[in-house]
Amino acid sequence: MNSGLLTPPAARAGGTATRPPEASLTWTDPVTGRQGFLVIDRLVRGLASGGLRMREGCRHEEVRELAAAMSVKEALHYDPTGRYLPMGGAKGGIDCDPLSSEARGVLSRFLAFIRPYLENNWATGDDLGTTTELIDEVLGELGVDGCIAPVVRTLADPQAARKRFSDAFAVEVDGIGLAELVGGCGVAEAVLTVLDRDGVSRTSATAVVQGFGAMGGSTARFLHEAGIRVVGISDVHGTVANPRGLAVEDMLRHRRAYGAVDRSRLGPDDVLLDRDDCLSLAADVLVPAATSYTVHENNQDRVTARYIVEAANLPVTAGAEERLRARGCVVVPDVVANSGTNAWWWWVLYGDVAPDAASSLSKVRGALRDLVTETLKLAEDAVCTPRQAARYLADARRDVLLSRTGA
Ligand SMILES: NC(=O)c1ccc[n+]([C@@H]2O[C@H](COP(=O)([O-])OP(=O)(O)OC[C@H]3O[C@@H](n4cnc5c(N)ncnc54)[C@H](O)[C@@H]3O)[C@@H](O)[C@H]2O)c1
After folding, report:
1. Average pLDDT of span 213-225
2. Which of 128, 187, 234, when mutated, tests ligand 1's pocket best, judged by the most ligand atoms within 8 Å of its CB?
3. Strands 238-241 and 330-332
4. Contact 363, 355 (CB under 8 A)
């Protein structure tokens, strides 16, 4: 779309990757001592988008990286012919086990503290350990009009936009909500795009998915549906493997809370392995769809896959990525591969897509195929990583957006 404007990424050193965030705060809960973080990487038209995560051990640096990634995801989906105008990126994080008895109180006090940003600048939503429903419920108690309030205020017909949004979130396909499916649909399309590019037939290709929650489960469904053999799936408790292919839909039907595989319902040939064995299973594609930093310098040599397509945020460390690349493994970065969910929210809200499954999945597929193709081509032409290419594309698209709309 905008590739005519490009010069090599090296010319843009000091772009997205090194820019300091516009705002960054650390909050300490006066009741429990737990910490919360809000990083606004950048505002565009006064707005930034990005979820709120809650996990024991969440750190400021992690939230800062995630916020920077959100700026890239937003800008990458700028389409001058669409209604959606990308925002900047932000992220929230709370260092607390979401299942602990103190979690709700901590969440409520954190949101109360950062309320001005929630009302004016930061459109948020679910991430690890939170749900959009929970955030909306707590915001309702605080008198804030939901987690997308700052964006809704900028729209010509806020009522129609909210109706489209709630209609879309009510759609389910075979037991899984559309809001959950769009992310995995995009990741699976990213996988299919790299396989098609390299002439790997879908019927011969194999994949392993690390994580079986919202992202992992929906990615596994779409890979399976496309004819790819899913030979391994892991959750926090371990890995389930079958070189002949797992019965993905059965596993989804019996999936338990928090993305746990029901091990009492597996097939007779399925094998139980240790959790991290999913990394070394023989497969063409590895899809990390669990937590951040799961592939690092000390375990990257276990990975045998030729392609890693990142469904999770920050699953591969920079050091691991360098080594993987040196031995020919292509890493399709999170900012591209898992960007379908964020973009879909705004396509629905702005009215770029109808709030139904057919048009939503078709738009996600088209956008991800184009984006992966452009990213890999630029990486090849400019001899850089796909992650560097994606950052560059994002900077170029944001420049165009800002020149048309102003900051
Ligand atoms: N849900 C979305 O729409 C969305 C969109 C973009 C990115 N992401 C990112 O995708 C990742 C997963 O998010 P989710 O919403 O699917 O979470 P989730 O809580 O629904 O599922 C997480 C899954 O990972 C498993 N898991 C946890 N630790 C593991 C480990 N060490 N090894 C293997 N499995 C492990 C859990 O058992 C569960 O199956 C996160 O990094 C998140 O930020 C999610």
Report:
1. 97
2. 128
3. unpaired
4. no
Residue 138 to residues 90, 113, 124, Cα–Cα distance (Å): 20, 13, 13
Q: What CATH number was assigned to the domain covering residues 158-400? A: 3.40.50.720
**Of 157, 187, 166, nearest in space to 343 by CA:** 187
The beta-strand segments (E) located in 41-118 are 48-49, 52-54, 88-94
Whether ligand 1 lies within 6 angstroms of the CB of 216 is answered as: yes
Question: Measured from the CA of 215, which atom of ligand 1 is nearest?
Answer: 16
The phi, psi pair for 311, rounded to 5°, reads: -85, -35
The answer to whether domain 31-68+86-154 and domain 158-400 are alike in fold is: yes
Banded pLDDT at 407 (limits 50, 70, 90) = low
Amino acid symbol at 41? D
Q: What is the pLDDT of residues 24-63, one digit of tens each?
A: 999 999 999 999 999 999 999 999 999 999 999 999 999 9
What is the pTM (predicted TM-score) of this model?
0.94
- Give residue limits of the domains in the chain: 31-68+86-154, 158-400
Classify domain 31-68+86-154 by CATH number.
3.40.50.10860
Q: Is the CB of 236 under 6 A from ligand 1?
A: yes
A 10 A CB-CB count for 247 gives 16
Residue 341: phi, psi to the nearest 5?
-65, -50
pLDDT tens per residue, range 236-258:
999 999 999 999 999 999 999 98
